[in-house]
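ZP: hey, is the benzoic acid complex queued? I don't see it on the tracker
AM: it wasn't, my bad. submitting now with these inputs:
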Amino acid sequence: MSLRLGDIAPDFNAETTEGPISFHSWLGTGWGVLFSHPADYTPVCTTELGKLANLKEEFTKRNVKVAAISVDSVESHNGWIKDINETQSTTVNFPIIGDPEAKVATLYDMIHPNASDKFTVRSVFIIGPDKKIKLIISYPASTGRNFVELLRVIDSLQLTANYGVATPADWKDGQDVVIVPAIKDEEATTKFPKGFTKIKPYLRMTPQPNK
Ligand code: BEZ
């Protein structure tokens, strides 16, 4: 059965380009992103992993570890990393999991047989400190992902976890956020000292609490 939001991210042991990992221990007490790409030595994947390497600091700042995976060996990943570094002007600075037998890919349902019976699609799992899955997205092989959008989602998830607020459509860091319906007006008054605007009884906006 496929994984759903709120499920515990399955634990696994695997070889990676940074040595063996036991996934849950490797995540520790922080957040994690596990993302699959179809295959090593392919053009879109090369740009994606390069982009992520260049943005890695932004993930680290948010206490998020990142790991890539495909159904290739660690030896293959290590060879490809040289090309990524050369062509994307970067240094790959996160582990790439070797999964030649597709054990982890199967555990996470990353192979979608009607898209490809052999390769993983571009799956993304964001995992919270409680090891629960907070986001799942799947992109086709032909579309490279937007890693800045992933950072935006992480900012939203962390605001929800830390302040009990939600974020509206197209929200960007620094803009007003939404007070969730579970918080009554009286509680909102003390919880959000910057105040809030009640547009409708169910639509209340407040300045971003951590700004
Ligand atoms: C790519 O990464 O460029 C790619 C991989 C598989 C299918 C299509 C594109």
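AM: back. The first helix runs from residue 23 to 27.
ZP: great, adding it to the tracker
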